[in-house]
Amino acid sequence: MSERVFVTGLGAVTGLGLDVAALWQGLCQGRSAIRRWQPEGVSDFPVRYAAPVDWNAFQCAYRSAFWWQTPMERRSRFGLAAAEQAVNDAGLTLLAGDERRLGVAIGSGAPERDPSDLLLALGSDGPDWQRLYRRFAELNPNSGLVNGNDQLATLIARRFDLAGPVLHFSTPCAGAAHAIGHGFRMIRRGEVDAMVVGGADSVLNLPTMIGLLLLGAPSIAEKYGDTLCRPFDRDRSGLVAAEGGAVLVLESERSALERGARVYAEIVGFGSAMDAYCITAPHPEGRGAALAMQRALRDAQLTPDDIDHINAHGTSTPLNDPAETLAIRQVFGDCAGRIAISSNKSMLGHLIAAAGAPECIATVLAVRDGRVPPTLNLSQPDETCDLDYVPGSSARAMPVRAALCNSFGFGGLNACIAVQRHA
Amino acid sequence: MLDAVALTGIGVVAPTGLGLDALWQRWLSGRDALSPFAQPQLRSRRIARYGQVPNEARVAAREAVPYKLRRFGTEPAFWAVHAVGEAIGDAAMDWDGVPEERRGLFSGQGDYTSPNFGSLQRAVSQAKGRDGALDLVLLAQEALNRRGADPSMSIKGLANNALALASLTWRCRGVGVAFVQNEAAGIAALRQALFELQQGRCDVAVVLATGSYAEALTLAELLRRGLLGEQAVAALQSFDEAASGAVLGEGAVALLLERRQDAVARGARIHGLVHAPGSYAGVRSQIELGLGEHEDQGYQGAFNEAVGAAEQPPWYGPATAVLADGRGVPALDAHEAQSLARVFDTEVAISCPRPVTGVIPAAGALLDLALASRVLADGLLPAVPGLIRPIEPQLGWARGEAALRRFEQAWCLQQGFSGFYSAVALTRAA
Fold first, then answer.
1. ipTM confidence score
2. Of A234, A310, A397, B235, which has the highest C-beta tally within 10 A?
3. A273 - beta bridge partners?
4. CATH number at residue A194
């Protein structure tokens, strides 16, 4: 017998603010976190906009936390803060159970690299590993170079004394969605009672942004200023990078009922699929994306008729948005036109490996509150993007019985989570 | 309760070269496959020996990757692609007859920072000012405008690099997921594959794991934690009183899994039945070497989960072989041996292949599982190479000649450097 899985805790640190309320209000009010940005010390970097976390505010809020002095990457700080919020939100009685039945699943991306660390790697004629190895202690202790890629998952497990599965997913932009989806399945299978799931990422450092720019991923458009993130719009020109962390507490029905936990919504399905098409581009017809959505629906035992809302991957890149539109059409057929689709990235930016986490939170709250956030900056719909993307700048009030949340990553990895209103 | 799944294909790229047989024969011989630590850009007096994938195997692995994809990949990803191909061949299945959407792929991969550094090498060199500091403006200009960086640096730096290359090379469009968490990654991938197969979400599950420790920062970190001994370690002496530290290595493994009834129906040779792994997070500190809060329950917790998850619980008896982790780190080996003494009685034969290859990130536990298939098939449990004075001598350590016995099951154990315990059983197919 499979367990039902409830969402009982939420936490978020994003460009829209330092908690879930700020995230949800910001999304519903069409507020954008995207602003002028430059990498430290490089004023003429081609990428001029991003959606950073307000670091000063974050420092003020968390510098008294006992873990603040622990060397860790920026993304881990966001993730740990979000995890604390989520566990507190779920209620500390969550932690009173058997620690072996509580686990962690986190998605995050490439390590954060400090440019000065790169310098340490070089001798007079190229990389000098021996020199770097000798000077290890001089590296920035907060850098991803000296912290394991799975540091956040481990930190969360240690912070809350969790001895169940500790998993770290690395499936680029689908990382957090995979973490949420597989955490959901572990509870449903009865392996654990609860999972702390989500993701954190920060690509707003020079080396990582150089890498993304060389791939042609971020927008360098001048015309639209801070409204350059335009999912499904004719003038979409690339993603706008962001940072942050978001975490959900998923819990079995039995555990949630036993401790009288508040339930936001129910996770009912998860699907994943690979494109096997191109390492840097989605399949043009969205084949992998469609498969992931179909599998999530099947897993949830839902039909296309049951879905009222899709929280789209919607990156504002020339390739993703039409491919995702085609995938939705393929899966939903005649129903596609009545589904309210929105891209949170138009306001939040793209949190890369963590993107699926705040977007899943938004999906959960859309189902709970009956409000679907808008897709900002969609002023000239692309003819290849012909669905209802909730244009405008305010949330649409509507009943949302069930919803899907899409995340698609580099390397052709696709994931989809199905969320249903808690009855 | 879960059915065990059939292991029908195995692919290996290891310090012994390509293929499982080379690794098995080397373990039987009791000789290690370690070589002097000689990486092109990294030398160390503290690290004397290393389990390095030989050059001819590197070349063959690279050739296994379609030419157009090579610029996107790292060497460990190439090894993984080769291992997957070998596993498919070993399974003797009509790969083209398996719908692409039904081919699941699950990967565990180590961390890599080398490609990140290397890809920016020229740009960083050019951007170094006279005062020795890095001019960030110049760095960006060099990297972006003068192609002083590898355009694929982001892709190479991703820890799903092996999964992406393997999915493209072998046309896997089914369920897929990538884990990166050092030695625990392979087990996490295996666990996921078993569930996806059993839930019917794929018809074939390929589990791959790959990793290399030939990376400056990881080595520095392990040295700092005292895991590699106070002085250069000449040999990995698992569970021996004389052990002084771990010897590291690299490699990849791929396991092809099918539902038991499917494998039987197509008349496949079944290497063994893989049961759901049990795991337990001791969550050892990454900074200091020391046991975490729950570690006294580590292996027992993993066993309890593994046995509890199995439909027909595999447990132990005289026909049980144990492939222990044995990293050669005195504190870790002592803890493991004490745990083994609590879990098993003296009749159980215990060995460890780790001295042959060194400790391999991500892939180590799955390599053990591959070797366990030979233990069952050949009725031989090779000795722990170099074990002269075992700690916890009352345990049934395999020493001297290989133990000749019809083994019905083999347990593969791992605690890792980080305290992620796992126990996975392979049993003989009926």
1. 0.86
2. A310
3. A414
4. 3.40.47.10
Residues in B closer than 8 angstroms to A162, CB to CB, are: 281, 283
- The alpha carbon torsion through A69, A70, A72, A78 (nearest 10 deg) reads -60
Residue A291 and residue B173: Cβ atoms within 8 Å? yes
In terms of DSSP bridges, do strands B320-323 and B278-281 run parallel, antiparallel, or are they unpaired?
A: unpaired
Tell me the per-residue pLDDT of A132-159, one tens digit each, with 9 for 90 and over: 777 777 778 777 766 777 889 989 998 9
Mean pLDDT, range A197-212, rounded to an integer: 92
**Contacts of residue A122 in chain B, CB cutoff 8 Å?**
121, 124-125, 128
Q: How many domains does chain A have?
A: 1
Residue B17 CA, distance from chain mean position: 15
DSSP assignment of B266-301: TTPPP-EEEPPPEEEE----SSS----TTGGGHHHH
Helix and strand element counts for chain A (H, E) = 13, 16
> CB of B235 within 8 A of CB of B247?
yes
Q: Which domain holds residue A311?
A: 5-111+147-420
pLDDT of A367-395, one tens digit each? 999 999 999 999 999 999 999 999 999 99
A126: which DSSP letter?
Answer: E
Residue B224 burial (CB count, 10 A): 15
Domain annotation for chain B: domains and CATH numbers: 5-112+159-427 (3.40.47.10), 117-157 (no CATH)
Q: How far apart are CA B195 and CA B202, in angstroms?
A: 10
* Residue A343 forms part of a structural domain: yes
Direct distance between the N- and C-terminal alpha carbons of chain A, in angstroms, rounded to an integer: 20
Q: What is the DSSP track for A380-400?
A: SB-TT--S---BSSSPEE---
pLDDT at A233 over 90: yes
pLDDT averaged over every residue in chain B: 87
Question: Pick from B41, B175, B297: which is nearest to A272 by CB?
Answer: B175
Give, in degrees to the nearest 5, the angle at Cα B106 between B104 and B108: 170
Tell me, what DSSP letter sits at residue A165? Answer: -
Q: Tell me, yes or no, whether A66 lies in a domain.
A: yes
